[in-house]
Design goal:
CATH class of the largest domain: Alpha Beta
CATH topology of the largest domain: Aldehyde Dehydrogenase, Chain A, domain 1
Helix content: 25-40%
CATH superfamily of the largest domain: Aldehyde Dehydrogenase, Chain A, domain 1
Number of strands: 19
Structural class: alpha/beta
Number of helices: 14
Largest sheet: 7 strands, mixed
Distance between the termini: 55 Å
Bound molecules: nicotinamide-adenine-dinucleotide
């Protein structure tokens, strides 16, 4: 789908690409070069969002009753469309969001993989039969879809996160209202376009790009919306969660403050590399990004030296350019937020790498910040407690494994945590001791599999349902128990 040169891309409601009811437009700019307008989008209003819920509610019964093989075939065809266009769409994604080109293309392919996974896995949902005393009765349970499912997603993984919500919702027979972030709207539109090309019936998948203040209440508080799957900041997620009708199921995937623990026996080059990959890839804008490194005292100085050197060696630039290792921050708001935290860090810790906005030449066109490392960070410092969501790592000294666990757990979040060691005693204890939904040993805090569950504990997730993998299907279905007598 192409936008006319003078017309913005439109939202999809009830199978039709519609203009904004008030004609407002969102400009989507490249954060590496803000003079580059990547796309323009009709900005949905509250009325447009309500129309999307109307359409989904009307389309739901027929979609629920569509044979699962037909639903699966649509997911498969949408996946094939994404794969066939992965280079173009990945380039657009890198351009609108700032991530490296290879990561953009990889994310489009991952979304395709997610669609394929749910096309198969969704066909394996089963119920149970129940033994009982009446020989003339059959008792069984089965799963049925909830109804209208709202998916609200952030800009940092703007196609893979929507895919892991929309695919399980659709394969289980729900009708979807999808509201992506206005910071990376084009790739979200591409995902919807893939479903349209695949033959999704009108109203089954609706796209609402527009300000959350206008669209939010219409797609969350309406009692016809039976589930809201949200990924984004803890503040926004908590607010939406509290506003939902009691009949609306909620799944909130929120912020993190993820620790990487480095024990004294660790190979320090490996540990520093894991910290760099987890903390600075995606310019630190991953919910599972490494934002704290907890390192045992005896190796602290040697580790910091290696980490600071690796951080300083990273080439920061446009994600579309060869050799770039760290792209721009995604928006002016992100730049301000990260610079504010760096200023706070300078007041409460020792700066050992980075610490500045990059300026001059091409840097002046975008939102570039040096990969930044703070040492001598106390466990209760603001930069050790609050999510920064940028390329900033806080190194905290700990006396031993037990103190590392206490510090790791001493934040409101619990998304991902990793340990670097070869000591089997600690490898075995760590998954039990650490408060996190994703636990890793000798790997980065970032990254998760399409076929495995994903989510956090404490303020990183609602304590309801995991997403991703087979577990991701549960959220979109409910159990019905049936007693058949004769
Ligand atoms: P955000 O909370 O600002 O926005 C997320 C989405 O919610 C956007 O589409 C936004 O428009 C929408 N939104 C905000 N308020 C709303 C409301 N009241 N009603 C309806 N919609 C509303 O987050 P962001 O800046 O886009 O993303 C960064 C955040 O996302 C970070 O905190 C990060 O940790 C988190 N995140 C979490 C995960 C996870 O799986 N846990 C994954 C990626 C990002």
């Amino acid at each position: 789908m192409k936008a006319d040169a003078d017309k913005p891309y439109r939202n999809l409601v009830n199978g039709a690409w519609i203009d904004a009811s008030d004609g407002a437009v969102i400009e989507n700019r490249n954060p590496a070069d803000t003079s580059d307008i990547v796309s323009r989008h009709a900005a949905a209003t509250a009325d447009d969002a309500k129309a999307a819920v109307d359409a989904a509610a009307a389309a739901f019964p027929a979609w629920r009753d569509t044979p699962i093989g037909k639903r699966a075939a649509i997911l498969e065809r949408a996946a094939a469309y994404l794969d066939a266009n992965a280079d173009q769409f990945g380039h657009e994604l890198a351009r609108e969001e700032g991530k490296l080109l290879a990561l953009g293309v990889g994310e489009v392919k991952r979304a395709a993989q997610t669609l394929r996974f749910y096309a198969i896995e969704g066909q394996t949902l089963t119920g149970e039969t129940y033994p009982q005393d009446d020989p003339a009765m059959l008792v069984y349970s089965h799963r049925e879809p909830l109804g209208v499912a709202t998916a609200i997603t952030p800009w940092n993984f703007p196609i893979s996160i929507p895919a892991r919500k929309i695919a399980p919702a659709l394969i289980t027979g729900n009708a979807v209202v999808f509201k992506p972030s206005s910071e990376a709207p084009l790739i979200a539109l591409r995902l919807v376009e893939a479903f349209v090309e695949a033959g999704i019936p009108a109203g089954v998948l609706n796209l609402v790009i527009g300000p959350s203040s206008a669209t939010g209440p219409a797609i969350t508080a309406d009692p016809r919306v039976r589930s809201v799957s949200f990924t984004g900041s803890t503040g926004a997620g908590e607010k939406i969660h509290r506003s939902l009708p009691i009949t609306t199921r909620s799944q909130m995937e929120l912020g993190g403050k993820n620790p990487l623990i480095v024990l004294a026996d660790a190979d320090l080059d490996t540990a520093a590399q894991l910290a760099v990959a987890g903390g600075f890839s995606l310019t630190g804008q991953a919910c599972t990004g490494t934002s704290r490194v907890l390192v045992e005292s005896s190796v602290k100085d040697a580790f910091i030296e290696k980490l600071a050197a690796k951080a300083a060696a990273l080439k920061v630039g446009n994600g579309l350019d060869d050799g770039t290792k760290v792209g721009p921050l995604a928006s002016a708001a992100q730049l301000k937020n990260v610079l504010d935290y760096i200023a706070i860090g300078k007041g409460e810790a020792t700066l050992v790498a980075g610490g500045n906005q990059l300026t001059g030449g091409a840097y002046d066109k975008g939102y570039f910040v040096e990969p930044t490392v703070f040492a001598d960070v106390s466990a209760d410092a603001r930069i050790a407690q609050e999510e920064i969501f940028g390329p900033v790592i806080s190194v905290i000294e700990v006396a031993d494994y037990d103190e590392a666990i206490a510090v790791a757990n001493g934040v409101q979040y619990g998304l991902s945590a990793a340990l670097v060691t070869n000591d089997f005693r600690y490898i075995q204890r760590f998954p039990h001791d650490v408060e996190a939904g994703t636990v890793k040993v000798n790997r980065t805090t970032t990254g998760n599999l399409v076929n495995a569950p994903f989510g956090g504990v404490k303020m990183s997730s609602t304590a309801t349902f995991r997403e991703s993998g087979r577990a991701g299907l549960d959220f979109f279905t409910q159990i019905k128990t049936v007693y058949l007598g004769r």
